[in-house]
Amino acid sequence: MSLVLNEDQTMLQQSARDFCREQAPVAVLRHLRDSKHPDGYSAEVWQSMVELGWAGMAIPEAYEGFGFGYSGLGLVLEETGRTLVPTPLVSTVLLSATLINLAGNEEQKLELLPGIARGDSVVALALEETAIHNPLHIELKAVKTGSGYILNGNKDFVLDAHVADQFIVVARTEGESGHQHGISLFTVDAASQGVEVQRLNMVDSRNAGNISLVDVEVPEEALLGQENKGWAALSRTLDIGRIGLAAEMLGGVQEVFERTVEYMKQRTQFGVPIGAFQALQHRAAIMYSEIELCKSLVLKALYELDRGEEAEDIPALASMCKAKLSEIYMLVTNEGVQMHGGIGMTDEFDIGFFLKRARVAQQTLGDAAFHRDRYASLRGF
Amino acid sequence: MSLVLNEDQTMLQQSARDFCREQAPVAVLRHLRDSKHPDGYSAEVWQSMVELGWAGMAIPEAYEGFGFGYSGLGLVLEETGRTLVPTPLVSTVLLSATLINLAGNEEQKLELLPGIARGDSVVALALEETAIHNPLHIELKAVKTGSGYILNGNKDFVLDAHVADQFIVVARTEGESGHQHGISLFTVDAASQGVEVQRLNMVDSRNAGNISLVDVEVPEEALLGQENKGWAALSRTLDIGRIGLAAEMLGGVQEVFERTVEYMKQRTQFGVPIGAFQALQHRAAIMYSEIELCKSLVLKALYELDRGEEAEDIPALASMCKAKLSEIYMLVTNEGVQMHGGIGMTDEFDIGFFLKRARVAQQTLGDAAFHRDRYASLRGF
Amino acid sequence: MHDLEAFRAETRAWLEDNCPASMRTPMPEDEVVWGGRNAVFRNPDSKLWLERMADKGWTTPTWPQEYGGGGLDKAHSLVLAEEMQRIAARPPLVSFGISMLGPVLLEMATHEQKLEHIPKIVRGEIRWCQGYSEPGAGSDLAGLGTKAILQGDDYIINGSKIWTSYADQADWIFCLVRTDFEAPKHSGISFILFDMASSGVSTKPIKLISGNSVFCETFFDDVRVPVSNLVGRLNDGWTIAKRLLQHERTMISGFGLSSGRNNRGGLADSLAETAMLYRGDVVELSDPVLRDQIAQFRIDSEAFTLTSQRSAQEAKQSKGPNATSSVLKNYGCELNKRRYELALQAAGTQALGWESLTEDDSDFSQQELAVARQWLRSKGNSIEGGTYEVQLNVIAKRVLGLPDMTAMVGNTAGKQGATGQNSAAEKTATES
Amino acid sequence: MHDLEAFRAETRAWLEDNCPASMRTPMPEDEVVWGGRNAVFRNPDSKLWLERMADKGWTTPTWPQEYGGGGLDKAHSLVLAEEMQRIAARPPLVSFGISMLGPVLLEMATHEQKLEHIPKIVRGEIRWCQGYSEPGAGSDLAGLGTKAILQGDDYIINGSKIWTSYADQADWIFCLVRTDFEAPKHSGISFILFDMASSGVSTKPIKLISGNSVFCETFFDDVRVPVSNLVGRLNDGWTIAKRLLQHERTMISGFGLSSGRNNRGGLADSLAETAMLYRGDVVELSDPVLRDQIAQFRIDSEAFTLTSQRSAQEAKQSKGPNATSSVLKNYGCELNKRRYELALQAAGTQALGWESLTEDDSDFSQQELAVARQWLRSKGNSIEGGTYEVQLNVIAKRVLGLPDMTAMVGNTAGKQGATGQNSAAEKTATES
């Protein structure tokens, strides 16, 4: 098992870091927010990322992807986490492409994946139905008709909802909310009759929306995978999403920490840099140690994802990553604001963007408590 | 509502402090431990306390007590917590006398309470049946016969078991473990046929023991209060016990903290007193703040106990006290050892006694988690 | 005792007659009355209520009648507070004049100064702001550089302040300025009052992460202020500043005070209820870990409230705020921060909205949005009014008597003209 | 690669033949083999196993064959470790000679010194102890006062040491002594080896709160030691001392390493199972808050194990322990402390026994008693081998490059003869 980056990975990391610093700094998010940009992300920045191959990162070559694997996608996500640039990377590449690849049949993959790899389409996963992550709580109903299905229900907090061309809707075809059996996956064109999207203005200025589906008709071919048996692919996709999100969070954690340490060296109070105060030094050292643990978890999880069939223990690793990163992103952003003092409270300064992103990322796909609970069950207690 | 001591209370506190410092310092506990004293407490020290009126502190004057109330008893417990002197104060005065007073009929009170006030008898409450506090988990059976009851079952971790003359045994006369109804209280002579006591050597060197009762016959008059309806008095007694124990813990917390701050001023490293290091200063300041909160809780709870019928919210106050003090006694003893460094790890030094006492006190009558859970239920969530 | 009971009866009757019905309802944030020349009364009853209370001096019940206050002693003012609480009466006036400047003027100003300023504070006619922090100085308050140079009977003031709360809405400012440039830094500061309408004063709001702009940068460009506006002795302003900071801390620690109660506006009214609501729970909060954390928070809140009460009782014997104000300030702020972190967990993504994009707030209710904003706002609690770190230093040094590192390893005091009080090791790490 | 596979097959076969069956079972604490002149082999198979492994040099697989070591490279030694793990073979020998002194001698001693000492370490013939800390010095190691004064070809040593682990059972000591009394404190220290049987050496065990006495006070009264026993250059002992401390930290950080696994003796094998056992739970731990805390502990433990592996992989490129050793030392110790606090919660009053008073241990089992003792013992983890606070200082200064307060506000170095390395502000607060 390797927990250090190989040469290719180091190069990818460096180029992603350079790109984000130069083309996609925090100022991009700030501008999108302040201009109340209708798309909520920059098509130009996204196009450049697509040209770098990021949209096809984890898509197999057979579907026009580049087969860099999740380790590659993770590195890219980590760098985007350092500058908070909003893109369809999480919704479309990390979640939807993964789910299509895992659950779809050959035709569906050929139809959907190349478009994602080329950056032509934004696909959003419509999962949550409550404000608290609960992937088994699925009440949106899909009823079989002669020619397909009719979908009725609501979805909350769907990433990139208002800019998506397609949705993958998690629906219930049988059984009760809370059960794995009876969950089915459908691709739904965003332009379908009966689909309504309400954009949400979230605290982190990233795209999300609520969707309502009223008597939405989809053909039989819209079923992704087998009826009632969508849970396995969905569950694996969510774990991959959690690991990818943890990679993004790791980028944010490191960025905030590095900025804070730098500030501690520059900022003078009472004639000395504040970084000379032992109480702050100890708090910084404690954060540093925690971040080292975070890095190891994310590296290990990404490594395991790319081992495919042989992968060990993905669900537990995903929960460990998301639990630990949620906890430490909260710690580091809180300390980051406090140690920056008054200036950290101003909107002009970037640190607030990370504070806000940390909490939304924490809630996305399950917070620390959710994942510790899941981890305990997975470990048999 | 008064949260400051009145003149009488201040005087009592001072005299109790003087007595404990001079007659009952930590050295008394150390000697009892090292000499493997058969009683586990010093009869001489106890006799002096009895002469000071401590045994009758909260016993009504009608039963030869002194009616100082629980505020008085709490002050005394706080001081004994500062020197860790082992006495039957908790088992006999705080718990058993209270329960007899609450549950007993006139004859029982007249028979039992004066002996306690005079320091003639040690009475132990036999409650727990598992290693985790669970007062509703009562399986010890009491079956009615023509002339009384027959008791069968085991009790764990009974304070002062092996030196007790009498036990108050919490038994089940009806219903299942977990239910309030069906709990009955019996006084059982320690010398009764079928009673066996196994002394326990606990980490804090205080008295506790396991008891087994095999076909123990008691007369009808042994029933304390009504059959099946022992819970109300027991429950209130446990709350009083928790508050009293919290007062004892508050004494220990303050003693450890004061000794640690003193050590920080004396102990020199690298040419400066360690108390000059900011990281330690902040940790000390945080402890100080927490201790201020602990004091307020204990003062308030004791004050309310003495308001009798009008008392507000005793169960919640008891749980707040026990939860908070358990948490802070753990914090302060851990920091106390760490800040004392190597010397704190030696048996020769007193700090280890407090560390050990803190954990036993935490487990006694419910730890922090138990009481936060109970508090949440009491507050309706 | 008899007197108190009579007073209670009178007060109850008077309140019954004079407190408008709408003043007995929970107060929305935008109906808080701050007073001043441009006072806004979103609810006309607020104006009536202020006037009636000010007439009796009950906006400041314990201040001397001579200057327009209520002239009540502690016991009587407590009765008034209890009677107001009984009918849930709103405070008629909220201001830095009442909570910060007034007590200090009463203690340290001349009779003429009191006569000029106190009545206007009592009646809410003048709104005050505080000119303390400066860009680059942060927690090192005494390092201030705003200059006041004597020219005839006036001082000419030049410099700038930062984190001036509501400077853009204030009428007057109480301000720390440097009047001696040679003395050690604490010994060259004076405390002065002046009109924000003076020529040369300008303000610029600072936008915060919460989206609000309660703070300003404030600039002084040759502002002319009469010498008579100086409070206390020349170059002795630091003494007044410290006294005033104690009052500020006492006020900020109040953030944590209501934690145990349910009288705050917004969704965070009860964390437990919120958490249950968003999970559809009826009897018990279904997330046992969050339930434990909320229980711990509420226990600490209740203990904090009791400690505030105890501190007040202990302070009765002495005068003014005591050493525990640092403890209470810090604990109150940390509690408030914990409260809002828990609120975010309680309501999940619904507590993470920034603005509603729908007409009926069907995406995010106003209460939900307020939680996110207040969560962000709460992060400033442990920075303003003396950082968390400064308070811990104060507790360690003044309350616990722990030694000062700087005194041990050499002292920069000489270099900076500092007294022992602001030696480097004693001080903070972050700026106000 | 081929070679490795062949080596694996050979090794597997050899182990199969030579590792006694009882050496493949979990090792009770009293069967650990420490070696030395008075070595105790509670299980006779232990002796056999030690001899067989020592013959191959496999008690120290990577040490040079020249001095009795196994002469294996990293890859081969990993194969050996894996094969031993496969059959759960016990370590044949545990000693400070292997974990601390040996690596330093190999790096810094003369050929003659290596020839004299290394083979006896490899074979477990000599048991070593460490003479570092002194009464009153604590974390300020370099403040040591034990004197070595040259007299002909010998040093005459006088002074005392404290916290000397197993000094009463050791044959030789590696010891820091002061050899220059004028130089700055770090520059006058030498590193010397001598026989504990020398005239003038005495020891006195220190009883700990856990009831154990692994540490001693050690006294030197005119102890005569040949000059040739000096390791490295005269007065350059501090360099060796620091190197050795790094090895010690790496070893102590191992405390936390097994946290995620179930291979520790005693009731704390699995916290979760323990907690379920004492509650009678079958499917899920019924205390959800304790369950959450155990989950958090185990996640941190797994992350810690991965970090140790990552650190080892990163260290491959460089040589010897790297900067993360401070991180790992601290985190490992804190994890171990957390583990035992959780164990106490898991088992309630049954984990709070001191001794059994019954013949059949019906009051407290030996495992339960071990938990209480190990809980107490764990409190020392963050004190010994460089306190928690010292490690945090090291991380802040060396890894994060944060500035040194002492350099900012004046320096005591002159007074104490300290170099920049041990300036007051950098250092700790508690003693070792």
UniProtKB/TrEMBL annotation, chains A, B:
InterPro entries: Acyl-CoA_Oxase/DH_mid-dom, Acyl-CoA_Oxase/DH_mid-dom_sf, AcylCo_DH-like_C, AcylCo_DH/oxidase_C, AcylCoA_DH/ox_N, AcylCoA_DH/ox_N_sf, AcylCoA_DH/oxidase_NM_dom_sf. Residues 139-202 form the Acyl-CoA oxidase/dehydrogenase middle domain. Keywords: FAD, Flavoprotein, Oxidoreductase. Its cofactor is FAD. The keyword Nucleotide-binding does not apply. GO terms for molecular function: acyl-CoA dehydrogenase activity; flavin adenine dinucleotide binding. Residues 228-374 form the Acyl-CoA dehydrogenase/oxidase C-terminal domain. Belongs to the acyl-CoA dehydrogenase family. This is Acyl-CoA dehydrogenase.
UniProtKB/TrEMBL annotation, chains C, D:
One of its GO terms (cellular component) is plasma membrane. Residues 129-223 form the Acyl-CoA oxidase/dehydrogenase middle domain. Pfam families: Acyl-CoA_dh_1, Acyl-CoA_dh_M, Acyl-CoA_dh_N. The keyword Metal-binding does not apply. Its cofactor is FAD. Belongs to the acyl-CoA dehydrogenase family. Residues 45-125 form the Acyl-CoA dehydrogenase/oxidase N-terminal domain. InterPro entries: Acyl-CoA_Oxase/DH_mid-dom, Acyl-CoA_Oxase/DH_mid-dom_sf, AcylCo_DH-like_C, AcylCo_DH/oxidase_C, AcylCoA_DH/ox_N, AcylCoA_DH/ox_N_sf, AcylCoA_DH/oxidase_NM_dom_sf, Mycobact_Acyl-CoA_DH. Residues 235-400 form the Acyl-CoA dehydrogenase/oxidase C-terminal domain. Keywords: FAD, Flavoprotein, Oxidoreductase. Residues 413-432 are annotated as: Disordered. One of its GO terms (molecular function) is oxidoreductase activity, acting on the CH-CH group of donors. PANTHER family: ACYL-COA DEHYDROGENASE, ACYL-COA DEHYDROGENASE FADE29. This is Acyl-CoA dehydrogenase. Residues 418-432 have a biased composition (Polar residues).
